[in-house]
């Protein structure tokens, strides 16, 4: 019962945050909307016994990733007014019709139970149990993920330091710095 | 223990994220919408994990992996967006047509 109460409180918050994100004209407001959605999702993790994953969600997603996004939004500038004119005729009514059809399908599928409930003991999402499983049954995907993270960080550094003809060293004149993206 | 409500919410959030990817012109906001889609998928994973009572916590570990991959994707994606902005003075995805014939 408590789970349902938590859901009723935080599901509208998540939806409002998502709507703010896709509809706000100011990119900073969009980031704030996504932040609200991510916090609500972390609450859902807790209500599903995912304590460690909720902490990771708040620290990594809401903390690190959103800070990175805000930095880039500030760097690029927030003055990005966009025009919403469509190029395809009849696009809006067709999109509305298809969206309503999808809504009906989702609600119809969600109104029936089609998955048998699990029979084991309730999932234990504490950091102790999650680490037991992560370093036991999931050790190979874990290592592959660490490889992916190393590749991503090296790639990011390479992209950030990219300069054409910068191999010659720092003696290269300033005109060579702002080159074309190859 | 409820499952379908989480699945419906995940579907809504995923649809909103996809709408954002298709509609927004700013490349940073497109990446932001992708993050929303990944979060919606994570809701499904964790909800199914709690509902099916997986013995090896597959759903939660998968959500952990999704968060990790999202972090890597954001790092690379934002670096690319910054490079494009530095070279073209615009982060508008409609103007990124270098490879268009």
Structure characterization notes:
The complex is a heterodimer of chains A (182) and B (101). Chain A is mainly alpha-helical. Helices cover 65% and strands 0% of the residues of chain A. The radius of gyration of chain A is 23 Å and the shape is extended. The termini of chain A are far apart. The mean pLDDT of chain B is 88. Chain B has 3 helices and no strands. The interface between A and B is large, with 78 and 71 residues.
- Number of domain units of chain A: 2
Say how many strands of chain B there are. Answer: 0
What can be said about the biggest beta sheet of chain B? none
The major β-sheet of chain A equals: none
Overall pLDDT metric of chain A = 83
Can you tell me the overall shape of chain B? elongated
Quote the distance from N terminus to C terminus of chain A: 58 Å
Poorly predicted tracts of residues of chain B: none
**Series of H and E elements of chain A:** HHHHHH
Structural class of chain A: mainly alpha
What is the approximate shape of chain A? extended
Q: Count of DSSP E strands of chain A?
A: 0
CATH architectural type of chain B: Orthogonal Bundle
Q: CATH class of the largest domain in chain A, please?
A: Mainly Alpha
Mean pLDDT of chain B: 88
Low-confidence stretches of chain A: 171-177
Approximate strand percentage of chain B: under 5%
The number of helical elements of chain B comes to 3
């Amino acid at each position: 019962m408590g789970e349902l109460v938590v859901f009723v409180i935080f599901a509208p918050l998540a939806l409002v945050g998502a709507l703010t994100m896709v509809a706000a004209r100011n990119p900073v407001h969009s980031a704030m909307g996504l932040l609200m959605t991510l916090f609500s999702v972390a609450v859902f993790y807790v209500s599903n016994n995912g304590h460690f994953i909720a902490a990771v969600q708040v620290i990594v997603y809401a903390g690190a990733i959103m800070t990175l996004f805000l930095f880039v939004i500030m760097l690029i500038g927030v003055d990005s007014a966009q025009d919403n004119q469509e190029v395809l005729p009849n696009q809006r009514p067709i999109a509305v019709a298809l969206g309503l059809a999808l809504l009906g399908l989702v609600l119809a599928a969600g109104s029936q139970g089609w998955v048998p409930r699990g029979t084991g003991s309730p999932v234990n999402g504490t950091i102790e149990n999650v680490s037991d499983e992560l370093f036991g049954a999931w050790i190979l995907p874990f290592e592959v993920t660490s490889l992916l993270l190393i590749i991503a960080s090296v790639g990011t550094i390479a992209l950030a330091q990219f300069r054409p003809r910068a191999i010659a060293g720092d003696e290269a004149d300033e005109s060579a710095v702002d080159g074309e993206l190859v | 223990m409820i499952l379908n409500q989480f699945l419906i919410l995940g579907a809504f959030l995923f649809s909103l994220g996809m709408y954002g990817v298709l509609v927004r012109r700013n490349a940073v906001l497109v990446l932001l919408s992708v993050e929303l889609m990944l979060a919606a998928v994570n809701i499904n994973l964790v909800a199914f994990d709690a509902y099916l009572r997986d013995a090896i916590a597959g759903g939660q570990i998968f959500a952990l992996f999704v968060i990790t991959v999202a972090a890597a994707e954001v790092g690379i994606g934002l670096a690319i967006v910054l490079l494009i902005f530095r070279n073209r003075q615009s982060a508008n995805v409609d103007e990124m047509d270098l490879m268009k014939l």
